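[Meeting: bench + compute handoff]

Bench side (C.D.) handed over the final construct sequence. Compute side (W.E.) agreed to return the predicted structure before the next meeting so the bench team could plan truncations. Sequence as handed over:
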Amino acid sequence: FSYTQGFAGGLFHLVELAIRNGELAPDTEVYDLVMDLMTLVRGVIYNWCQQQGSFDVVQRSTRMTKTYLSSYICT
């Protein structure tokens, strides 16, 4: 698995940018955060498949990602 390409690579870049811009805590471990986000979204997709698409996967992924990221956001 490469975190420098594809979806993970894009997330990696966005997290680094958010840290540089002061939007995320400066001590954020980029690799760990990206892997956590990938796991979270994959879990939502897996659950969506198990429930045969019975909920809005984008809405659920967005809500859960925002909740998770709130602990990293600089105020």
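W.E. noted at the follow-up: The mean pLDDT is 91. C.D. will use this when planning the next construct.
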